[in-house]
Design a protein that fits this description.
- 38% of the residues lie in helices and 21% in strands.
- The protein has 475 residues and is of the alpha/beta class.
- It folds into 3 domains: 183 residues, FAD/NAD(P)-binding domain; 86 residues, Orthogonal Bundle (protoporphyrinogen ix oxidase, domain 3); 103 residues, Protoporphyrinogen oxidase, mitochondrial, domain 2 (Polyamine Oxidase, Chain A, domain 2, Alpha-Beta Complex).
- A 7-stranded mixed sheet has the order 7-6-15-16-17-14-18, sandwiched between helices.
- Helix 1 runs parallel beside helix 11 and helix 5 runs antiparallel to helix 6.
- The structure holds flavin-adenine dinucleotide and the ligand C=Cc1c2[nH]c(c1C)Cc1[nH]c(c(CCC(=O)O)c1C)Cc1[nH]c(c(C)c1CCC(=O)O)Cc1[nH]c(c(C)c1C=C)C2.
- Flavin-adenine dinucleotide (FAD) binds next to helix 1, strand 14, strand 18 and helix 18.
- One of its GO terms (biological process) is protoporphyrinogen IX biosynthetic process.
């Protein structure tokens, strides 16, 4: 029997691919501790009929991983429900940062590199020249902040990159490793002696390399129509629901079932459940956050348990605000607040600018992340809502009180790939390989925090399963 732990998008995708890869149909079981599937992918319907995204809201179509997710969505029969945002759409062009009590547009095209854009003190072309003329310092790892300061100068690090890190992992660029979120830039520097030099060389080969991934009709459409990001009708929860329907009758999905201990046997693995029952399986695919998996196997494998638990995750408060018949003055994806502004909000997504919902303006305020304890430790939801409303009023001139709202604190929802993360992940995989544990890892703790990353990792994990063991025992 093949066991999948966790019914978030990673676990569901793992089950989807396991159905394809398994040598014969049958015993795949998925355990989910809560009473719903999807994990952080959650679209809440408000009493007014509005959709509030609590977690992810847009997915990138580009590259191998983007193509892979579009293939999954097409295979699920959801192609007609995809809502694309093209690269000419205002939300793809306008990404804002809030500095010195003002909103500033980040440069979005080649020509804007030659002009001075506030809050930058000189045209960004000087930062590019800085990269072209700066020698490579051989390194194995450094913080994103230090890397960007070194190659492009401190303004780019403070305003553009520190904000981007907040807008992707709610993290502090001074602590996050360059090796993961900016792995590509770092690799270009180390391989070609500079980021821009490397990017130009790589641009010569125009067609994206999709090796290992299938191209779908939807991916071709995304390239022809130049999609920037996409979602689906009903919100991203639709993908989760459709995956759930696709798996029903083929995979045994056990809801409200928490795995409380994992014990590796001479052959296979014994799983303890919250009702004190046990399941034996040939192998386990973990689609749990690393620290949760760490706790489950700590008793038998403390070294592995400690390594998994050392991958830090942060809390994010997500506050959806809705205003009826009050249009916004700005048309943009949203704004981010660079950490040096020392404000209690990370950023605000202008959801209804991307995906209209009748006469409503819908905003999502995200707060906390790496600074959650600094601003919100022990605070109530009412306090958090009040802070969100106050800043939306001050910065965007929306009424002080919204017509509808939804507040939630997502505990330990985003992993932080801090310095040394790549080495930690290597040690984790090294331990699993050395001890020949029938354990396969997926989820956002290891190799990318976005939806595309985790779906692709689930595919890779399932494809690496030694199914012959499974075939021999499941017979
Ligand atoms: C606020 C926010 C905004 C985001 N925005 C974007 C975005 O715009 N675009 C994008 O691409 N990505 C975004 N992401 C990232 C994306 O949401 C994640 O990559 C993805 O949801 C991770 O899914 P997962 O299945 O790996 O983990 P999870 O969603 O954490 O799923 C794990 C599941 O395991 C279950 N579980 C836990 N412990 C046990 C146990 N012991 N036994 C059984 N089950 C257990 C949990 O209940 C959960 O359902 C965002 C994330 C957050 C938090
Ligand atoms: C303010 C907090 C956050 C906002 N979004 C997230 C947080 C923590 C989480 C998040 N956003 C994206 C991803 C996926 C990354 C990926 O690998 O695909 C995650 C985990 C998408 C994203 N959001 C922003 C950018 C630049 C990206 C990358 C993809 C893309 O280019 O679209 C910017 C951004 N995020 C937030 C805001 C307010 C914002 C910009 C104005 C919210």
């Amino acid at each position: 029997m093949s066991l999948i732990l966790g019914g978030g998008i990673s676990g569901l995708a793992a089950a989807f691919y396991a159905l394809k890869s398994a040598p014969k149909p049958g015993a795949i079981t998925l355990l989910e501790s809560s009473s719903r599937l999807g994990g952080w992918v959650r679209s809440v319907q408000s009493p007014e009929g509005l959709i509030f995204e609590k977690g992810p809201r847009t997915i990138r179509p580009k590259g191998r991983l983007g193509a892979n997710t579009l293939k999954l969505v097409e295979d699920l029969g959801l192609a007609d429900q995809v809502i694309p945002i093209t690269s000419s759409h205002p939300t793809a062009q306008n990404r804002l940062i809030y500095v010195n009590k003002k909103l500033h547009k980040l440069p979005s095209n080649f020509f804007s590199l030659f002009k001075t854009h506030s809050p930058f003190s000189k045209p960004l072309i000087f930062s590019i020249l800085h990269d072209l003329t700066t020698k490579t310092v051989p390194k194995t790892d450094e913080s994103i902040y230090d890397f960007v300061s070194r190659r492009f100068g401190s303004e780019v690090a403070d305003y553009a990159v520190s904000s981007m890190i907040c807008g992707i992992c709610a993290g502090d660029a001074k602590k996050i490793s360059v090796n993961f979120l900016m792995a590509k830039l770092f690799e270009l520097e180390q391989l070609h002696g500079g980021v821009i030099k490397g990017a130009i060389k790589e641009m010569m080969s125009k067609r994206p390399d999709l090796s290992g991934y299938e191209e779908s009709e939807l991916y071709r459409r995304s390239r022809i129509e130049k999609w920037s990001v996409w979602s689906v009708e009903g919100g991203l929860q639709t993908i989760v629901n459709t995956l759930g329907e696709h798996l029903s009758n083929k995979v045994e999905v056990k809801m409200d079932t928490t795995c409380t201990n994992l014990e590796f046997l001479e052959k296979g693995v014994k799983v303890t459940l919250n009702n004190d029952q046990h399941i034996e399986a040939n192998h386990v695919v973990s689609a749990l956050p690393a620290p949760k998996l760490g706790m489950l196997l700590h008793k038998q494998h403390p070294t592995l348990g400690n390594l998994l638990s050392s991958i830090e995750h942060v809390n994010v408060a997500v506050i959806n605000l809705a205003y009826e018949n009050i249009p916004m003055k700005q048309n943009a994806f949203g704004f981010l607040v660079p950490p040096r502004e020392k404000l209690p909000i990370l950023g605000v997504v202008f959801d209804s600018c991307c995906f209209e919902q009748a006469d409503w303006t819908i905003l999502t305020v995200m707060m906390g992340g790496a600074w959650y304890d600094t601003y919100f430790k022990g605070q109530s939801k009412e306090y958090i809502l009040d802070i969100a409303c106050r800043y939306v009023h001050e910065i965007l001139d929306m009424p002080r009180t919204p017509h509808a709202q939804h507040v939630e604190i997502l505990k330990a929802c985003i992993p932080q790939y801090t310095l040394g993360h790549a080495a930690r992940v290597k040690d984790i995989q090294g331990y699993i390989d050395t001890h020949q544990l029938p354990l396969y890892l997926t989820g956002s703790s290891y190799d990318g925090v976005g939806v595309n990353d985790v779906i692709a990792l689930s595919k890779k994990a399932v494809e690496s399963i030694k199914w012959q063991h499974w075939g021999a025992q499941a017979g």
